[in-house]
């Protein structure tokens, strides 16, 4: 894990939240959606199948558990989990809580309108919410 480096695009488009056993958790800087990105802290990984079997299981466990508690906490209608990597090759998994009245519903969030950056208060509130939800999870 010492050689892990975060892609510069992920770093500029998102805000740090915490580290889980496998993944770094970051908040996408778009206040229109409760949107996290999980990045496995493994160097040089571009695809899920490049992770070890145990890391694949851990990635899915972290994503589904974080998604579940975030969906409940934000009273979401649907949870979207996605790996694309067409722009940023480094493996990262989007965890997006969707609501039927959100700005992009029912279309994907990508390329829909202009991102609305968090102000400092909103960023702190969402980070605190995420941390509070993750705190009680057994992700080890």
Automatic annotation (TrEMBL):
Superkingdom classification of source: Bacteria
InterPro entries for this protein: HIT-like (IPR011146), HIT-like_sf (IPR036265), HIT_Hint (IPR026026)
One Pfam family hit: HIT
Domain HIT, residue spans: 36-105
Protein name from the UniProt record: Histidine triad (HIT) protein
Species name: Litchfieldella qijiaojingensis
